[in-house]
Amino acid sequence: MGGEIGFSSIEGEGSSFWIELPGEQLAEEGTTKEVAQQGDTEITQLSAHKQVLYIEDNPVNLKLVQKLIAKRTSLQLLCAEEPRTGLELARKERPDLILLDINMPGMSGYEVLEQLREMKETHAIPVIALTANAMDNDMLRGEEAGFNDYLTKPIA
Fold first, then answer.
1. Among candidate residues 140, 139, 74, the one with its CA nearest the CA of residue 152
2. Which SS3 state, helix, strand or coil, does residue 115 take?
3. Are 75 and 19 in contact (CB under 8 A)?
4. In sequence order, which residues have a C-beta less than 8 Å from that of residue 83 and are 6 or more positions away?
5. pLDDT digits (tens, 9 = 90+) for 69-125
6. Scanning 5, 81, 151, 155, which has its CA 20 to 30 A from the CA of 21?
7. Is residue 118 a contact partner of residue 87, using CB atoms and an 8 Å limit?
8. Which residues are 150's β-sheet partners?
9. What is the DSSP letter of 140?
10. In what order do the strands lie in the sheet with 97-100?
11. Strand, coil or helix: what is 109?
12. Residue 21 DSSP class
């Protein structure tokens, strides 16, 4: 998507991770915002050029990412609170990027990633793990599983 991902770390104090996605500012009158509820799926539509799907079962984490993405007027955020709903949204909407939690009930993020890579509609979509699993072996497992990147929570 032409952006950047990075981090800074101070030993013994912690790490900060960031994502920068390019965008363009729209005139205020040209910006629309609609929120639609469909079962366990919330779709926030902004006048957007790029679409991001976030599959996450924790409502607090969903709200945080919604607030972060809402600052980018060139993005549309799709949220799914359940893995199967996320898979269906990914297949139907074909977003430009998928953010994916690892620990979810019913299906892990690794299983979701495997299914995304098997579907012709979604196999080429970049998928970034966004998870609380922050140990070195967790990150290595994510890389080996085929995530395009691996970010750990909490994010700010």
1. 139
2. helix
3. no
4. 55, 104, 106, 107, 109, 111, 112
5. 888 888 889 999 999 999 999 999 999 999 999 999 999 999 999 999 999 999 999
6. 81
7. no
8. 129
9. H
10. 33-38, 41-46, 75-80, 50-55, 97-100, 127-131, 149-152
11. helix
12. -
How is residue 144 written in tokens? 């080996």
Q: How far apart are CA 39 and CA 148, in angstroms?
A: 29
Nearest 5°: CA angle at 82, between 31 and 122? 70
The answer to whether 126 and 144 have CB atoms below 8 angstroms apart is: no
Residue with tokens 């199967």: 84
CA separation for the pair 89, 86 (Å, rounded): 5
CA dist., res. 10 & res. 141, Å (int): 24
Question: How does strand 149-152 pair with strand 14-20?
Answer: unpaired
Nearest CA to 33 out of 69, 57, 64, 82 is that of 69
Q: What is the pLDDT of residues 31-42, one digit of tens each?
A: 334 444 444 444
First to last CA, the chain: 21
Say which amino acid occupies 94. R
Amino acid at 62: L
Q: DSSP characters for 53-86? A: EEE-S-HHHHHHHHHHHHT-TTEEEEEESSHHHH
